[in-house]
Each structure stands twice: as C-alpha cells, then as structure tokens.
Amino acid sequence: MTVGNMGSVQLFDAGKKGRGLRATKELTAGEVVFAEPSFSAVVFDSLATQVCHSCFRRQANLHRCAQCKFAHYCDRTCQTACWDEHKQECGAIKMMGKVPGEKVRLAARVLWRIHKDTGIVSDSQLISVDQLEDHVTDLPEEDLKHLKTDVYTFLEYWTYGRKQHSVDDISHIFGIIKCNGFTLSDQRGRQAVGLGLFPNLCLVNHDCRPNCVAILNHGKVELRAVGTVSEGEELTVSYVDLLNLSADRQKKLKEQFHFQCSCEQCSQRVKDDLMMAAAESEGNKPSADQLKEGTAFSKEYLEKIERSRMEKDYCQVVRLCRECLEKQDNILADTHLLKLRVLSVASEVLSYLQSFSEAADYARRMVEGYIKLYHPNNAQLGMAIMRAGVTLWHAGQTEAAHGLICKAYGILMVTHGPNHHITRDLESMRMQTEMELKMFKQKED
User: Fold this and answer.
1) DSSP code per residue over 37-95
2) Which helix (H) or strand (E) holds 215?
3) What pTM was estimated for this model as a whole?
4) pLDDT for position 162
5) CA 396 → CA 390, 402, 408, 426, 438, distances in Å?
6) How far from 122 is each of 37, 145, 339, CA to CA, in Å?
7) N or C: which end of the chain has fewer CB within 10 A?
8) Which has the closest alpha carbon to 90: 115, 64, 118, 116?
C-alpha cells in the first residue's frame, strides 16, 4: 500500500509485532521517509499559557482566546489556523465551566476530528485512527481506575449535538492515546510541551537500535533514516530512552506498550556490560563488594540530588554531585549509568550557576561516556554533544567547543535536517566559533 507522500513506505504484516511499515526503496542517512501533521494535538495543562496551541512554539506574550480564555496563540494567524479544531473545544470549555486535563481534551479533539473527517484526513493516511491498537484489556487495575475517571470526565465535557458514545468507544480512544500518543517538543527541542496523535507514525514499530528517528519540525513529525535502510527493510524507531539496561528497557516497554522486546540489543544485552562497568586503573578493578557498595551509595545520592533539585537548592545539588563523583571515581567507570546521571546533573546545574569551567569538565566526561553507548546518529547524543559544546564555549575553551559543535551538527543534520531550529542554531554557533578561532590564530601570528 503506497499512497501520496507515503510512496517510500509500505504497510505490511509484521508477524507478532502486528502491523508495520517497510521501505519500498533504499533510504540514505538523513533522508525524510515521510512527514505527517498531527491528526489532533493539545498543549500540556502546565504550559497552557506559555505555548501556542496552534504551532506549539514556546514564547512570551501569547494572545488569549477571548471566548474560553484558555487557548493561547502567537497571533491572529495561528488562532485562525487552529479555529476549525478549537471551536468545539472552546464551546465545551464554556459549557463545562472549567478546563479538563490534556488527555480528556485530546480524546475529545480526536473524536471531533473523526466525526468531521471519518478518521482519515488525507489520501496519505494509511489507516483510520479508530483502527489503531488500544491495549485496554492489557491495562493493570490501577490504570483502569484512572481510565474510568477520565471517561466520566469526558462525558461531562463532551458536546457534539446529539451524537453520543458508549463507555467502550471512549475507552478505546483513551487506550489509543495511551499507547500511541507522541510527545511534542518546543521549537528548539528543549522541552516537552504537548501530546499529539500521528496515525502513520503509530504504525512504525520499536527497536532498541532503530534505523529511523521521529522529530517534530515546523508542526509536522518527520520520520528520518539514521543510516542506510535497504529496500524491503522494516522501519523502526525507539519508544524508550536507549540509555538503560536491556532488562529495564524491556520492563518499561512491557508496562507502557504491552509487548516483550526481543530485538538483538535486548536478547544479546548489547552494551549492558559498559553501562554497569567498574572503574579500571592500571589493570586493577574494585571487588564485587566494592562495586555493590558503589551502586548502592550512588542510588542513594541520586535520590538526595533529585530532592535538592526539586527544592531548587542548587548549591546543595552541586555539593552532593561532587561528593558522589569523588566516591565513584575508583569504583564506577565513566560509562556506568549511575555515574553518567550524576555527571549530567552536575554539568547542567553548574552551567545554570555560571560555573562554566567546572561544568565543562563534567560535560566532557559525560559526552565521552555517551559516545561509547549511543548509536553514532542518535538524536539524544547529538543534543548532549551540542549542550557540552556550548558549555565549553562559555568556559572559554573555544577550540574544544568548536570540535563538539561540529560533531553535534553532523549528527543533527541527519536526525533533524538542515531546516530545523536546532540545526540552524548550531550552524550559527559553528560559524561563530570558527570565526573566533581564526581571530585567535591571527593574533598569535
């Protein structure tokens, strides 16, 4: 089945995984397989006044909808573009007298869209939204309780003439959102700002070493190849952060997406040894008891660090990170997950406190560990290298910063493409650091 702008892919029976998509031609790294607008999408409750409800850009001084006083927009253009989707929501909010949570709002938007477009909005949509998997029967008891609450809130909120839906129909939509909802990021990929449903993307199955990545770019999700994909090869993305042990990834995938991952990375526990590696100095390694003790105190410190971070006691966060890293140094390797998490927090918080020299040291060590664990064209790796490059630049280490920024640019050109806000920002930084290096060299000469 190949239609419209989906000519590079084909829907097929992927066996135990259900439906899937495969390539109908050879794809190269960075190639856009397809771009898809959301079927429906909403801004998170917590960011409703800070993010445009049409284009999902985060910015100050948004204009509020005069009717419901809930939706916010960049300007009249964004408000007009979104009105067809917002008008039902606007009336429902006014009638209910309050705004329900994001899941209820998204479920309502999905159903309004189904009524308007019968679940298929264009020739390039491969499957109707209501045909997506919901896994409601697989939900544990606690999740079913939450689902029941959401359904009754939905019934209070829903208005669409005389058209009503059964509890099973509404539960089906909530199940689809839970299993298939895609988190939307702001224009620079720095923060999750909303939730959307993209029917074609929902057909792409998971792999812990995926051959594609899904990135939001100018209001559409782009599926991009991260390496060469052969004709007939299944297209895959990762549903979870790959920087976790195989067993932890499998557990999360089972709990959230209701399948047992048996990909090569999981079945062979690829790189699990590095993620739990002990420090080694001149051939000497810590004992099993020392490693066990190091793991225990690292988890304890990370809990304290997170509490202090939530309380915004950043000086305490830095103190705890320093203590933990000092104790870890001769026990845990720089690729150990617990050490990487401390290095990440330390570099981020010290950068916020403008202690750039110390932050740069931690950022460099963190990136060196990430490079050994992530796929070379991984979007999260590219973002981490970019942040490290910026930290080194602020620390006055321009040459090293330029090297990292160039490396990040190479990765993100594949994962995000040349027109993404992040890539454009990186291109500007790359040119500026290059110019600074030339100026330094001219002064030396």
Assistant:
1) E-SEEEE-GGGTTTB-TTT--B-SSPEEPTTTS--EESSHHHHHHHHHHHHHHHHHHHH
2) strand 212-217
3) 0.90
4) 59
5) 10, 11, 19, 18, 15
6) 10, 35, 48
7) C
8) 64
- Cα separation, 39 vs 385, whole angstroms: 33
Structure confidence at residue 426 (pLDDT) = 95
Chain segment 4-61, per-residue pLDDT in tens: 357 899 999 988 888 999 999 999 999 999 999 999 999 999 999 999 999 898 888 9
Q: Which residues of 302-325 are buried (b: 16+ CB within 10 A; e: fewer)?
A: beebeebbeeeeeebbbebbeebb
pLDDT of 268 above 70: yes
Give the DSSP H/E element, type plus range, for residue 384. helix 379-394
The whole-number pLDDT of residue 4 equals: 37
61: left (phi over 0), alpha (psi -120 to 50) or beta: left
Q: Is the pLDDT of residue 1 over 50?
A: no
**Per-residue model confidence (pLDDT) at position 16:** 86
What b-and-e string marks burial along 412-437, b requiring 16 or more CB atoms within 10 Å of the CB?
A: bbbbbbeebbbbebbeebbeebeeee
- Between CA 172 and CA 73 the distance in angstroms is 31
